[in-house]
Write a structure and sequence with these properties.
The complex is a heterodimer of chains A (441) and B (516).
Chain A lengths: L1 E5 L3 H10 L4 E6 L2 H10 L3 E4 L5 H6 L7 E4 L4 H14 L4 E6 L2 H8 L7 E4 H13 L7 E4 L4 E7 L22 E8 L2 E3 L12 E6 L1 H12 L5 E7 L3 H12 L2 E7 L2 H10 L4 E4 L5 H6 L7 E4 L4 H13 L5 E4 L5 H7 L4 E3 L1 H10 L10 E4 L4 E7 L20 E7 L2 E3 L12 E7 L3 H7 L1
Parallel strand pairs in A: 1-2, 1-4, 2-3, 4-5, 5-6, 12-13, 12-15, 13-14, 15-16, 16-17
Antiparallel strand pairs in A: 7-8, 8-11, 9-10, 9-11, 18-19, 19-22, 20-21, 20-22
Helix pairs in contact in A: 1-13, 6-8, 6-13
Chain B lengths: L1 H14 L8 H15 L4 H9 L5 H20 L8 H19 L1 H5 L8 H12 L15 H16 L1 H8 L7 H8 L13 H29 L7 H12 L16 H14 L3 H8 L5 H4 L2 H24 L4 H16 L14 H10 L15 H19 L3 E2 L3 E2 L2 E2 L2 H32 L5 H12 L20 H15 L3 H4 L4 H4 L2
Antiparallel strand pairs in B: 2-3
Helix pairs in contact in B: 2-4, 2-5, 3-8, 5-7, 5-10, 7-8, 7-22, 8-12, 9-11, 11-12, 11-13, 11-14, 13-17, 16-17, 16-18, 17-18, 19-20, 20-21, 20-22, 21-22
The chains are: A alpha/beta (441), B mainly alpha (516).
Amino acid sequence: MKVVIIGAGQVGSTVVEALHDEHDVTVVDLESSRLNALSYRFDVSTVEGNGASRRVLQEAGVSEAGLLIACTSRDEPNLIAAMLAKKLAPQVRTVVRTTDIEYLEVWHERQLDVDLLVSSELETAHAVSRIIGVPAARQTDVFADGQVQIVEFEVETGAGDGVVGIPLREARIPADSKVASIIRGEQMIVPRGDASIEPGDRVIIIGSPRAARAWSEIMARERKRVDDVVVYGAGRIGVAVARLLLEQSIRVRLIEANRERAREVAELLPNARVFNATGLEPDFLERERIGNARAAIFAMRDDAKNHYAATLAKLHGVTFTIAVVHDAVSMEVFERAGIDVAINPRQVTAEELVRFAHDPRTRQVAMLEGDRYEILDITVRGESSLVDVPFRELPMTGALIGAIVRDGTAIFPHGDDVLMPGDRVIIFTESARVAEVERTL
Amino acid sequence: MPARALTTARLRRAFRRETVGVDVEAVLDLVGAVLKWLGLAFLFPAAIALWYGESPWPFVVSAAVTSGFGWTLEQATAGKERVAPREGFLVVALVWLAVPVFGALPYVLSGEAQLANAVNAYFESVSGFTATGATILVDIESLPRGLAMWRQFTQWLGGMGIVILAIAILPRLRVGGRQLLQSELPGPTETERLSTSIRETARRLWFLYVGLTAALIALLWGYGVAGLDEEMTLFDAVAHAFTTVAIGGFSPRERSIEPFSPLTQWTIVVFIVVAGVNFLRLYRAIVQREPRTIARDEEFRLYLLLLGLGSFALLVELLANGRFAGEEALRHAVFQAVSIMTTTGFATADYTEWGALAAVTIVGLMFFGASAGSTGGSVKVVRHLLIGRLLRRELDQTVHPEIVLPVRLNGHPVDERTLRAVLAFVLIYVGLFAIGALGLVLESFRVTGEVTPFEAIAAAAATLGNVGPAMGFAGPFGSYEPFSAVSKLIMCALMWMGRVEIIPVVVLFTKAYWRA
């Protein structure tokens, strides 16, 4: 497949590195020095120019391309490149990197004609959240204009009255919802009628928004209070991390040295405690008992500062430190220095961008549990072998149809429903089976 | 017309001096325009007087004098298309000072003995237009009907605001009205608009105001016709509806709302509570049918809570004394608490005869006021709310010096400038109250010494807060008549400053205001 990549920065380079082997890659960037460096390392063709220009896109061969990845550090040129590419070549699938969560919301509502939108901040935040040990619990995604919701829960002891510990066929499962999967340790259990949800499992639910709320009421009972987390640096990444953790009702304290920014963030996040401090004064750390925090995340702009602050926090008693790395070299330095985890947002973003190499009918995907499971939104072909087969006769494999969107309305299928050509189906599947699922439908 | 031209030229020279940074001429022009139209207001009591077979002449003459003066002032000065923010303060302050002067004309011209004294007439007029409700009348019911209705009508005009009315109807205020609305519609936060044009906003506010008044008139008169209230006549219905919706408190009855049936009293309480809500929110809730915006409003919730607490304190006092029991105790407690806290000033019982708890509660309630953007006066609930949050933040910051805590109102951060303004307002308010109380005490020593300190404090609070009745002889069924002339003028100043929310008056006394 021909792939056009706009932007040859750190994210772009990582993407090129991952794709150059299997695909025919063209890279577009404004700076020839970056392009030279890339073409020296990999077998890729390069075009110097503005990726948001029609002429440059044509020159890069977008009309024969199957995939366009716009990953410069600026949102609007990325979006314009993707939109122009769609106009020039309707077959091309577009993947766009954004730093703005609002674009992400708009995209989720299907108002942006982009196949996949990836936010570095959000991906990093998810990565942090997974590491802290409250992995994406309550991670939710919406599909089909918000009519279908995917929710992931961690089943805690004592929670889940009427649902946990009994065979699924007897469990009181909220209407218009399905258990897509039960994850026990490393294993995925196919949710047949005789399977049951047990404490410690993770369950993935597909259902209507109302059903999703019903589930969260069932599962939320006796949720244990998680200790607080300190985030150094209230930049975009710091705020995204804080926001995600707050959504999981974790106490978050943000430390920001810039006075105006601190105020801005305090206004943005009413539930976070924001401190206007550098986080480097021992007095402050002592007074605010930073050492008692369960984890500290270092998301300041400067790697060296993150390094110093993390070491200082360790001295004050913080046991778990996660640092955000901006320079790939720092990764090793950090881990050598005893910082527990180092995350490179550009790396995380590039990985997410690369994952999108699917069938053209697939409109939107979401990842669960890192990259182990995916949610697909696929349109059913007329010649699919599953058309007109009642649901109860469909084979039970690792893939499960959670909802059907027919004529714009979501249907949560029962045993007697059948698939029809042209239906959009929301499918939960293991990542390894994506190709198989696409083939069958 | 050489004489006029000369005056004009002299005025121009006086006001157009480079050193003065305020366009006084434009301000006077605007005040003139307001007065010119105010003349029309006298036609209403004139009609009432005719209907009852009384002489309409005091009103007709007042109308002619007022309009004539206004017209002359407007002619003699050059107006401006826009009123700058700075001029807005002077317009508001002058309008509220001048309008009562002309409003007092019928009192003096009618030959009514109680109001013949110019200070008394001015006091009554200020108390009317500022919707305070303090009266110097001793025998209210002997007043001719036309004059009695004029008292009520001044409160109705002043309740919603003369300047807002002017914005709504004067064509020339189409553009510059925003600043005026801001300084007249009381409240610490930026006035939201109901419509894209400020003029349409002013119109909608008046539309709602007139609507509420009409509804109350219909209800009260209905009670009278249906025999639910033997005392209620059409005259009473109109008179009381005017001063209820305006949160004024004047009544043509000697004993205020006491003679009316419990049903009437409860109805009036409900309307006072409604009129004490922010009118912009009220418009959204009633006319645009979005009641949730009110129910979720933090100021509204605190307003109801405070009314509830005040009522409860009075109820405890009444039940403990055994003065009233059952529904009667509840009704009197709720009515007095609502009437005083919202700064109305009606009464269904003489609270001056109740105990110490009641006296302290009532004077305390005078400092709360109704909601911002309502027709009520005093400090306003939202300011108490913000100051409470400011104090809480201050305490939090003593323990955590580095913490950044924006103060929020209904979830939205309030900027620090607004908070400082709120703090400044409350400090000046308390300061003025203290100075006023001191002035009253000193003056009473000079004259007779019959005013007790508590009465002086209550009178200062009641006039600065535009409440009306105070304590002792100036209680709800009493009169301010015994105060000396100087005391009355002090209280006129307090009512005036209270009505325009102090700042427009106080800035006039700063050098920075006048500097170019």
